Structure to design on (135 residues):
């Protein structure tokens, strides 16, 4: 029997320096609303079987909320609803079409390893962070 997945999960590149910093930033502001899992892990593989839209490539962050999949720039806008103020106000921008926002997202995704570095493996979480991380 498989354990049910939490209702809100953020999938990220577990070896990306920018992604690791972003996850830590979100954890401080999400009020416990999210769980996190690397795109390279078991949870992401399980979610890909349920949601074929989830890319295998590591160049996209993914937010799954109650079975809905959000990709790239839309992740931050939809996730913002669960963050502390003033960050939650960004949820009001979710109506901006992805084709307007994603070009900046793709540019950052392309340069992220050069600017923020790449780890040989997923970063070890602190004790507080472990409860929110999935395999």
């Amino acid at each position: 029997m498989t354990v049910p997945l939490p209702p809100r999960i953020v999938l990220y590149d577990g070896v990306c320096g920018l992604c690791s910093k972003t996850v830590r930033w979100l954890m401080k502001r999400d009020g416990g609303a999210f769980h996190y899992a690397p795109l390279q892990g078991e949870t992401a593989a399980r979610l890909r079987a349920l949601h074929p839209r989830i890319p295998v490539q590591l160049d996209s962050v993914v937010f799954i909320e109650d079975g809905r999949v959000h990709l790239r720039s839309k992740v931050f806008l939809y996730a913002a609803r669960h963050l502390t103020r003033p960050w939650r106000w960004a949820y009001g921008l979710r109506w901006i079409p992805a084709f307007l926002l994603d070009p900046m997202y793709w540019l950052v995704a392309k340069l992220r390893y050069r600017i923020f570095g790449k780890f040989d493996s997923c970063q070890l979480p602190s004790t507080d962070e472990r409860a929110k991380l999935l395999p």
